């Protein structure tokens, strides 16, 4: 069953002077899902998120939240909360006071707001750090505090702008798991902006791919990866070879659906090995072809080492017709 819409974006547009950053996007974001807004730098992700949060005025179009038009409501009255790209905490306030800050602004009495702040610190596994100042915490810990601070308003939608980009790779993967767990536990919608396809594939129930202020494709991660609609999505999501010259309708074939043979067969494309990259569980073999330029074939490590290839070696590429996926022009 389709979940009810948490948010509906209707012809949502943002222009800065002459620059159209978000170009009349229509999108439904289902309730209680982890949605990733994915795309390259400058494609309009942050502008979209800031309009949803109410931190940026809408040039034209509407934002509807559970049936109510919230386009022009102030941030505190939209049911959303935002965790910023730079999750700067107030340096002179303790962790508990940082988390309780918005309740203080609302006039909630001290004992009550501190109790709520401690509950949220527990949720993000930071109970032991309530009395510390932000500069006595690691980057990952500061981020958990920032999350608790955003969640204390009990939003029905949490908006996160590149929340993992400042963390080192190890911590990034750990926090990624934490975010997913939190979203599941709370059952609210998370809308997470990222330029990392790995992050989006790992986290999202629903991926929205943006390019130049427009939505190129949206759907479950498996669908976006397996059936990219356009060349842009296929290249951006990665793991695909694009075949076919300019002008024609192009094809995408997943790099792990191509096979390398040392002997020719009907329909096989002759190629020459130019690079071999060992990645642990898979080995990426890059080959040069006359027909289609450089292509990559991902081979499982066991299969690869059973029959390794050498740079400069002549090989032949094959794939099944059903693995060639037509792209929209
Ligand atoms: P992303 O988050 O995907 O990197 P942004 O939404 O930040 O993209 O930016 C989209 C476009 O809007 C870019 O061309 C950017 O330069 C422009 N832009 C963003 N914020 C402003 C602003 N405050 N003033 C003028 N142009 C802006
Ligand atoms: Mg951004």
Automatic annotation (TrEMBL):
Protein's organism: Pseudohoeflea suaedae
Gene3D superfamilies cross-referenced by the UniProt entry: P-loop containing nucleotide triphosphate hydrolases
Similarity comment: Belongs to the ABC transporter superfamily.
One of the GO biological process terms: quaternary ammonium group transport
Domain ABC transporter intervals: 7-237
Residues forming coiled coils: none
Residues passing through the membrane, by range: none
Name the UniProt record assigns to this protein: ABC transporter ATP-binding protein
Cross-referenced Pfam families: ABC_tran, TOBE_2
InterPro entries with a match to the protein in the record: AAA+_ATPase, ABC_SmlMolc_Importer, ABC_transporter-like_ATP-bd, ABC_transporter-like_CS, Mo/tungstate-bd_C_term_dom, P-loop_NTPase, Transp-assoc_OB_typ2
GO function terms (MF aspect): ATP binding; ATP hydrolysis activity; transmembrane transporter activity
Lineage of source species: Bacteria, Pseudomonadati, Pseudomonadota, Alphaproteobacteria, Hyphomicrobiales
PROSITE patterns: ABC_TRANSPORTER_1, ABC_TRANSPORTER_2
Cellular component annotations (GO), alphabetically ordered: ATP-binding cassette (ABC) transporter complex
Keywords: ATP-binding, Nucleotide-binding, Transport
């Amino acid at each position: 069953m389709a979940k009810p819409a948490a948010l509906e974006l209707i012809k949502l547009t943002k222009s800065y002077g002459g620059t159209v950053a978000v170009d009349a996007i229509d999108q439904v974001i289902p309730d209680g899902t982890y949605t990733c807004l994915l795309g390259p730098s400058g494609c309009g992700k942050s502008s979209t998120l800031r309009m949803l949060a109410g931190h940026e005025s809408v040039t034209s179009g509407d934002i509807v939240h559970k049936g109510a038009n919230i386009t022009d409501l102030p941030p505190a009255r939209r049911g959303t909360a935002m965790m910023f790209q730079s999750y700067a905490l107030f340096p002179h306030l303790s962790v508990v006071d940082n988390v309780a800050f918005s309740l203080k602004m609302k006039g909630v009495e001290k004992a009550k707001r501190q109790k709520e702040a401690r509950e949220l610190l527990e949720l993000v596994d930071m109970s032991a750090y309530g009395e510390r100042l932000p500069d006595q915490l690691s980057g990952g810990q500061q981020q958990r505090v920032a999350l608790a601070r955003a969640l204390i308003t009990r939003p029905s939608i949490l908006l996160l702008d590149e929340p993992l980009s400042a963390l080192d790779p190890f911590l990034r993967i750990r926090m990624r798991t934490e975010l997913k767990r939190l979203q599941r536990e709370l059952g609210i919608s998370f809308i997470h902006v990222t330029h990392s396809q790995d992050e989006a594939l790992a986290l999202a129930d629903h991926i929205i791919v943006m390019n130049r202020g427009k939505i190129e494709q949206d759907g479950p991660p498996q669908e976006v990866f397996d059936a990219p609609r356009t060349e842009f999505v296929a290249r951006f999501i990665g793991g695909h070879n694009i075949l076919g010259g300019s002008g024609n309708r192009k094809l995408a074939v997943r790099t792990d659906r191509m096979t390398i043979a040392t002997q020719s067969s009907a329909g096989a494309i002759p190629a020459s090995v130019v690079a071999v990259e060992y990645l642990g569980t898979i080995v990426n073999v890059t080959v040069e072809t006359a027909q289609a330029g450089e292509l990559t074939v991902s081979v499982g490590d066991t299969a690869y080492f059973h029959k390794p290839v050498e740079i400069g070696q002549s090989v032949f590429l094959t794939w099944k017709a059903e693995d060639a996926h037509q792209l929209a022009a």
